[in-house]
Automatic annotation (TrEMBL):
<dbReference type="Pfam" id="PF07715">
    <property type="entry name" value="Plug"/>
</dbReference>
<dbReference type="InterPro" id="IPR039426">
    <property type="entry name" value="TonB-dep_rcpt-like"/>
</dbReference>
<keyword id="KW-0675">Receptor</keyword>
<dbReference type="Pfam" id="PF00593">
    <property type="entry name" value="TonB_dep_Rec_b-barrel"/>
</dbReference>
<keyword id="KW-0812">Transmembrane</keyword>
<keyword id="KW-0798">TonB box</keyword>
<feature type="short sequence motif" description="TonB C-terminal box">
    <location>
        <begin position="964"/>
        <end position="981"/>
    </location>
</feature>
<protein>
    <submittedName>
        <fullName>TonB-dependent receptor-like protein</fullName>
    </submittedName>
</protein>
<feature type="domain" description="TonB-dependent receptor plug">
    <location>
        <begin position="59"/>
        <end position="174"/>
    </location>
</feature>
<comment type="similarity">
    <text>Belongs to the TonB-dependent receptor family.</text>
</comment>
<keyword id="KW-0732">Signal</keyword>
<dbReference type="InterPro" id="IPR010917">
    <property type="entry name" value="TonB_rcpt_CS"/>
</dbReference>
<dbReference type="GO" id="GO:0009279">
    <property type="term" value="C:cell outer membrane"/>
</dbReference>
<keyword id="KW-0472">Membrane</keyword>
<dbReference type="InterPro" id="IPR037066">
    <property type="entry name" value="Plug_dom_sf"/>
</dbReference>
<dbReference type="InterPro" id="IPR000531">
    <property type="entry name" value="Beta-barrel_TonB"/>
</dbReference>
<dbReference type="InterPro" id="IPR012910">
    <property type="entry name" value="Plug_dom"/>
</dbReference>
């Protein structure tokens, strides 16, 4: 049976690869309609950020588009490495994260506008990608390791609220990975790369007395290998297609000890930076306590000259954990994907997707430590020297038959780094149908299931209970040193002499610890799009376009730590890990309308309005409404003005809601403690102190007070207002050139965050506000032993960022520029972002502070006022393509140089700034045959080191520098071969 031309045209809308590049940064030009085949009409376009189909669709929001070809041209094996080069994106989770303070999770996430990865919605072909990790220490964000890099046709980035179209989480924007369709044949892609770096950073000069040498000379390390096979087949006369994809990626780790700029954590002194590279034998520290008052009687460490006597502890004895992490984590990943669609009747199609991903990461952590743990040390311990017995026992009036209370800190350097072997196994399936209801109306319904399973095995950490057992040693009747407690399998440990820990003792105190968990998402969605021909403006020829539909989504989470975690027995996680279990569902209705008002009239080439709304009913957070309104006006074909307002919402995620609440310690000085409090009686009474308790609150040991952390089921959704307006210029006298400039302002209210205990307590004492977050011990009035400051997730202040995005794209035949034929085409794509404001208010009614142009302990990663990316390519007629990329990151200042409250502080002049940095990337592509292409290139050609600082505060950093925003490994050399059969 033959299919009519009109039916084939309708079917083409669904079988053709739809390319919609809406003008914006990195866009090649204005959106244009693409032909589905030689005998079909122009297909309708769907622009990311809208559900409405239109033959001349454009976007009222700026969209950045990156072609999938650039992944191969840059030798990218990790998609986040490409995303992070965009000026709108900030470094986030990825293989470059270390453990410890940064909290590496083995996932890869996206952070637009530095609003947090939980506020960036990730889509695959317009449908949600599920959450990637159930661990409470990792943000609940999609893991883009699920995205098959070789199948990416393009990446659309819409910054600003998009909740009216796509739902929750789109406060910062949307990243939509559009995959290739209708693949026919077999293609093999291989990418191989490595880092080439010369260690000659000036930081080497700051530690002439280092106890271990810096790495020196040229290095070649960190190889990455990726191989993928794509096989597809069209069938039934082109009405159906099935495509399979498999890829394997492997990355070899690079240690922080392999780079001179990362081997130590810097500290700032009066004369410059200092860096102490600790020896392999790092002695324990001890604080013997008064047996009556519990007060510390000094702080000691082992004397290196004797090995088994004590001397007073000095700050310079601190441990350097710089060389104990990875700059690039060892990792291997498998992707297996299957896509298919079939037109079972003219204009009606069923489609399905199955995606599988397994990522295995080795997250290296610093050697574990028992930090400030009160232990029992028996005075007749045979490992104690006479001098140690005197310090611990005799001077405190204890006999050999008694036990001393000693606060112990012991770094397990002898055992080396810990390893968190983390595996994420993800499944995602989609089954749907779409087609034509009539000539003007289409439908799309689908069901989607996604699940990520999480497994963690931590090795090399210490069981605190085993450590306590092993610490108390006695000599038995046979003259053997054994554990006093008689615990099964116990081997006594000697931390009282340098080098005294035996392998057997180490084997007893160290254990493997396990966590398992999952995140799960179920989506059912249906939408109808179409045109209301009866509602066509008398001044326009295109009718009113509408889209409406409904969606149901359920998300659930589970995390099960083993008994060691839940009993706070893991030394490296002494606060404990506790089970997480929870779920929420949401029912939604959405609608969108586009109204062409004037078309093809003098001074009104086009004038149109766009509006949309989404109503959501959450089982946890209640009702929310997101909406948008915008418009565009093109006086002629050379210039277009656009603007929009969008109200976006983000419901609290599962960890923010259900993360287990627990009381841990915080570095907090209570102004109401001690015999002579620094705060007045009235101020202390506001914080919960009684008249009787005032002046009688015992100081917290080591200024370690209590803080409650965890989730908060009472959280309300965040709300954001996004205002954007700008212009696009395509001058007819410069064909092939597109310029855009767009202003944005994203203001997030009711910000879901945690607030430092120091700020909450200080605000209570100073202003009497937020005192409900201070819970004192009812008997003693202290902030320890059932006293604490609540630092769980709350709806706090606001975060407001604004600026301007610029872009320029151009493409010309060389002959048109210089009059010489046969030299191909040249193209330029430039995108830059000026950040005018990045303002944070921690709590309502408190002073705000601004971080644009700053970095540091409070602001975190650098937020330069200007970033840009410029790509120049030259395509020759004989299949040779040359490409150069200039990446620029503006300079920033130490946030302590600001006069803002919460920022201002002391800092060293040489630590005042991070300089601007430029990177140059070069690549060449060769068409060896019609079916085989070779790409080669070098990123960071000049092997630039990241700028270093002593003022990172451990936040989003790899020690003395910020990873992700700056290249952390040096020059990257790669080759890529693609063969089509």
């Amino acid at each position: 049976m033959s299919i009519s031309r009109k039916a084939r045209a309708r079917a083409g809308r669904f079988t053709a690869t739809i390319v919609a590049i809406a003008a914006g940064p990195l866009a090649a030009g204005p959106a244009t309609a693409q032909t589905a085949s030689s005998d079909t009409a122009l297909t309708e376009i769907i622009v990311t950020g809208s559900r409405i189909r239109s033959p001349d669709a454009t976007s009222v929001s700026p969209i950045s588009t990156v072609n999938g070809e650039e992944l191969q041209q840059r030798g990218v094996t990790r998609v986040e490495d490409l995303i992070n080069t965009l000026p709108q994106a900030y470094a986030d989770q990825g293989a470059g994260n270390r453990g410890g303070t940064v909290g590496a999770s083995g996932t890869a996430t996206i952070n637009l506008r530095n609003l947090g990865n939980q506020r960036t919605l990730v889509l695959i072909d317009g449908r949600r990608l599920m959450q990637g990790d159930p661990d409470r220490t990792a943000a609940q964000a999609p893991d883009i390791n699920n995205v098959p890099a070789a199948l990416i046709e393009r990446i659309d980035v819409v910054t600003g609220g998009a909740s009216a179209v796509y739902g929750s989480d789109a406060l910062a924007g949307v990243v939509n990975f559009v995959l290739k369709k209708d693949f026919d044949g077999v293609q093999v892609d291989t990418t191989n790369g490595f880092y080439s770096h010369t260690n000659n950073n000036p930081i080497r000069a700051v530690s002439a007395a280092a106890k271990q040498a810096y790495p020196g000379g040229a290095t070649f390390d960190g190889p990455q290998n990726d191989v993928s096979i794509t096989a597809g087949k069209n069938f039934a006369g082109g009405r159906g297609n099935i495509t399979g994809f498999f890829s394997y990626r492997h990355a070899v780790g690079v240690r922080t000890s392999d780079r001179d700029f990362s081997i130590c954590g810097l500290s700032a002194g009066a004369s410059g930076y200092s860096c102490s590279l600790s020896s392999a034998t790092y002695p324990a520290q001890f604080q013997p306590l008064n047996p009556t008052t519990g007060a510390a009687r000094g702080t000691y460490t082992l004397d290196g000259t004797t090995g088994n006597t004590l001397r007073t502890y000095k700050t310079s004895d601190g441990f350097n954990n710089g060389p104990t992490y990875d700059l690039q984590s060892p990792d291997q990943r498998y992707n297996l994907d299957l896509f298919g669609h079939y037109e079972y009747a003219p204009g009606h199609q069923v489609y399905g997707e199955f995606m599988f991903m397994r990522d295995e990461a080795d997250i290296r952590l610093s050697p574990t430590a028992v930090f400030s743990v009160a232990e029992k040390v028996n005075c007749n311990n045979p490992y104690l020297s006479a001098q140690e017995v005197s310090v611990f026992c005799t001077t405190a009036g204890l006999t050999s038959a008694q036990t001393a209370n000693v606060v112990v800190s012991e770094r397990d350097v002898q055992a080396g780094s810990r390893h968190d072997y983390t595996t994420h196994t993800a499944y995602r399936g989609v089954l749907g149908a779409k087609g034509d209801i009539s000539d003007d109306w289409q439908y799309d319904v689908y069901a989607q299931y996604g699940r990520t399973n999480y497994d963690s095995r931590l090795t090399g950490d210490i069981s605190l209970s085993n450590f306590a057992n092993a610490l108390q040693a006695v000599t038995n009747s046979s003259g053997q040193i054994v554990c006093k407690t008689g615990a099964a399998g116990c081997v006594p440990i000697n931390i009282f002499a340098i080098g005294g820990i035996t392998p057997a003792a180490l084997g007893y105190v160290q254990q493997d610890f396990y966590r398992t968990g999952f995140t799960q998402e179920v989506v059912a969605s249906g939408a109808v799009t179409g045109q209301l021909s009866a509602l066509t403006s008398p001044l326009a020829h295109s009718p009113l376009g509408v889209a409406f539909g409904t969606e149901y989504r359920r998300e659930s989470i589970g995390l099960t730590p083993d008994s060691h975690y839940s009993s706070k027995d893991v030394a490296g996680n002494s606060g404990g890990e506790f089970p997480i279990s929870g779920a929420f569902d949401v029912k939604e209705l959405f609608a969108e309308v586009t109204a062409p008002l004037v078309q093809d009239r003098p001074f009104f080439h086009s004038l149109s309005l766009n509006a949309g709304a989404r109503y959501s009913d959450y089982s946890t957070a209640g009702d929310t409404t997101a909406y948008k309104a915008g418009g565009e006006w093109a006086p002629d074909t050379d210039i277009r003005f656009r603007g929009s307002f969008q109200r976006a919402v983000r419901a609290p995620n599962l960890v923010e809601l259900y993360g287990p609440q627990q009381i841990t310690t915080a570095n907090l000085t209570d102004p109401c403690e001690g015999a002579h409090p620094t705060a007045s009686l009235a101020a202390c009474q506001a914080s919960g102190v009684t008249v009787t308790q005032y002046g009688n609150i015992a100081p917290a040991a080591g200024q370690k007070s209590g803080a409650m952390i965890g989730g908060n089921p009472g959280l309300k959704p965040e709300e954001s207002n996004t205002v954007s307006f700008g212009t696009q210029i395509t001058p007819s006298f410069l064909p092939g050139v597109t310029l855009t400039a767009d202003y944005f302002d994203i203001d997030v209210k009711k910000l879901i965050s945690t607030v430092p205990a120091t700020i909450e307590l200080s605000q209570c004492i100073a202003t009497g506000t937020f005192c409900n977050l201070v819970v004192r011990n009812p008997t003693t009035g202290s902030l320890v032993t059932s006293g604490y400051v609540v630092t769980t997730y709350i709806n706090a202040g606001y975060l407001d960022t604004s600026g301007v995005d610029f872009s320029l794209s151009a493409k010309y035949d060389v002959a048109d520029l210089i009059g010489v034929n046969g030299l191909g085409r040249v193209g330029l794509n430039f995108s830059g972002t000026f950040t005018d404001k990045y303002e944070i208010q921690v709590l309502p009614n408190t002073p705000s502070y601004r971080c644009e142009g700053y970095f540091g302990v409070t602001c975190g990663m650098p937020i330069p006022k200007w970033r840009h990316r410029m790509v120049v390519d030259w395509t020759l007629p004989d299949g040779v393509d040359l490409m150069a990329t200039w990446r620029y990151i503006g300079g920033t200042r130490n946030d302590k140089s600001s006069s803002a409250v919460y920022l201002a502080g002391a800092y060293q002049p040489y630590d005042a700034t991070l300089p601007s940095v430029s990177y140059l990337d070069l690549g060449v592509s060769l068409a060896l045959t019609d079916d085989i292409s070779l790409r080669m290139g070098v990123n960071n050609v000049f092997d630039k080191d990241p700028p270093v600082t002593a003022s990172t505060g451990g936040q989003v950093s790899n020690g003395a520098f910020y990873s992700g925003i700056y290249d952390a490994l040096g020059r990257y050399v790669f080759t890529n071969v693609s063969a089509r059969f």
